């Protein structure tokens, strides 16, 4: 079986067998992504799945005017887990929060047909859906049991895992939404992390300086979903040494 001719940094696609890549590759199309590009809307049919190749997409639950982040998707995964599990309608809004990349997309109906055709493709997509659910669970644990400093450390680590280099293009307003906090509280917490040498924060950019300290601060809120992904799909994430 010939190997795929589509080169991609997406770890989920790269974890597929040659046979499954031969099935899916002809149906993939590459799309440029910009910040705030919406990939899924609450209550609307999921027409396409997006395998992220750069940047970070955020899935958020919406209640009234309040948005609460439940999961992040980068080069580790794909949007539209609901469709993978058989639900046509999205329960979350998913949009690009850290831009700087592309995505390979496929029509939902085509993905479902291929999953019915290939047990191995169906298995790895289901495993990814499970790992994403683990991530959602730990987002809820972080909000319920951890202070703002730990929640922000967890979120920065998750973004860091999904971008090239150590710089993450983020605003204070956006971080406040993502960790369910007031902007003033986020600003103060960033100053605290910066004073401890963990990060450098400038207008619209956070640079990770000491990942080991961030991991220690995040505590049990970070690490388990990442280890499950690495064990079940492919090695993922930067090491505590910043590699």
The CATH fourth-level homologous superfamily of the largest domain: Jelly Rolls
How many discrete domains?
2
β content, as a range?
15-25%
Q: Tally the helices: what do you get?
A: 10
- Fraction in helix: 40-55%
Structural class call reads alpha+beta
> What is the approximate shape?
globular
Could you tell me how far the N terminus lies from the C terminus, measured between alpha carbons in angstroms?
Answer: 34 Å
**Number of DSSP strands?**
10
- Element-level helix/strand string: HHEEEEEHEEHHHEHHEEHH
In order across it, which strands form the biggest sheet? 2-6-4-5
Main sheet specs:
4 strands, antiparallel
Gist of the model:
The protein is an alpha+beta fold.
Describe the structure.
It is built from ten helices and ten strands. The chain is an alpha+beta fold and 243 residues long.
Question: Keyphrases for this structure?
Answer:
4-stranded antiparallel sheet, 243 residues, 2 domains, 3-stranded antiparallel sheet, alpha+beta, Arc Repressor Mutant, subunit A, Jelly Rolls
Give the SSE map.
Blueprint lengths: L10 H4 L3 H7 L4 E5 L4 E3 L7 E5 L3 E8 L2 E8 L7 H4 L8 E6 L2 E7 H10 L1 H27 L2 H15 L4 E2 L3 H7 L4 H13 L3 E4 L2 E4 L2 H8 L5 H9 L11
Antiparallel strand pairs: 1-7, 2-6, 3-7, 4-5, 4-6, 8-10, 9-10
Helix pairs in contact: 4-5, 5-10, 6-9, 7-8
